[in-house]
Each structure stands twice: as structure tokens, then as C-alpha cells.
Amino acid sequence: MTAGNTAAASAAASPGGAYHFGFKKSVGGSRPSINEEGFKGILERHQAIFLGDTTKKELYLTFDNGYENGFTPKVLDVLKEKKVPAIFFVTGHYIKDQPDLVKRMAAEGHLIGNHSWSHPDMSVISSGQIANELSKVKDGAAQITGQQQMEYLRPPRGIFSDHVLAVSKAQGYTSVFWSVAYKDWDTKAQRGRQYAYDSVIKQLHPGAVILLHTVSKDNAEALGQIIDAARSQGYEFKRLDQLTSKSY
Fold first, then answer.
1. Which residue ranges form the domains of the chain, and what is each CATH number?
2. 162 belongs to the catalytic site
3. Any catalytic annotation for residue 228?
4. pLDDT confidence tier of residue 14, bands split at 50, 70 and 90
5. Which residue windows are transmembrane per the record (predicted)?
């Protein structure tokens, strides 16, 4: 999972040049911002994804799957019913533990993204180790789904550096961050369907990349309502590979 810093607080670099992704949240449809963070130039240089086209009412659903907590089948059921595409960022543990769900994701038209094999802090491992973390996930997913392509990466815990994004890009990946999120990954601090719904809807903005964790019971229960409310506001859900313009 990605327990990233989604608060408005600025993300300071560690002595090793690593950052923990953070941003200023959208309020009332306003554009979120990373202008106060020290890493905006790094994301731009490596063409990482933070926002889509902020002139269009398009939304991109992304899910982090570090482990299975019993709610991903419900999430997939809702996406299928609502005809909404998504991308699921999976770890090695998830690939080994839940091959049938990974196969279902692909079969139902969703993208499979790379969340690393062992969920390490990639800013403290070597280029070779990063490449190995990514290749093991790609190969493992391909064996399950038959799909050889894997183009998107979400750094574990939202921790990254210029080096991490450079090595990932050299491996053929676009790093994907997010512009809508809330603290949903703590399974011991679930606060109900309405809280999940409110937390997402109040942050919606054109070009939003939405981060959700499938371990959250609240997310599974609120997802259908979130989709319906977003569509009622004129938003369209698109798959990440349909994103044509990046904003920073």
C-alpha cells in the first residue's frame, strides 16, 4: 500500500534526496498544487503523472493492492456494473496470494500497475535492485494474465527520488502519483461509507488522479455512490492510458 502524505504540508527532502509525496488538496473543485513541494521539477523532468488535463472533467481511478483484505471482489463488481475502468497497482505478495483476482482485473479491462515486488523504500536501494523489484512484478503478472505490457509504476509508500524516477523511466515505466486521496489504508481506523464518500467527493477536480486502497471496507461500500455522484457532476472516468495531457 501507499501510505503517502496527502496533507497540504510541504514534503521536505531527506539528506539522501528522497521525498515523501505530498500536495495541497483541492477545495471546491480548485486545482491541487505541488508548487510548495521541493520535487515538482523532478516529476516534470521524468514525466511522472500527478494530474491529467485540468481543463477537462476527466477522472482516473487508481487502486493500490499491497495485500487482500476481502474487499477487492466488491470493488471489481462495482466497476463492472458501472462500466468504469481503473488501474490496480500490485505487489509481489498480491501476485502470489491472489492470482485469480489479478487475472480478473485484466480480463475485465483494467490495467495492472507495478507497486514493486517487496514494497521497499526504493530511494535506498541500488539501480539493479530497483530493476529487479519491477521486473519480478511485471513477469509475475504476465504469467497470470498473459499480458506482457506493464507501463505504470507507483513507488511504494509514495517515497521517491530523482534517481528512483530516472531508473524507473529507463525500465519503461511512467511513475504515477495522485491528486485525490485520504487516509484510507488503516484497516483499524475505518470510519464508514459516508466518510469515504465525503472524503473523495469534496476533493474532486478536473483531471484528478484518485488514489484508493482496496483494503478499505469504507471504499468498497462507497465506490458506487462516488461514481454516481461524480458522473452527476459531469465527470467522465477514463483509464490511465487514455490520459493525453499531464499537468503540474
1. 38-242 (3.20.20.370)
2. no
3. no
4. low
5. none
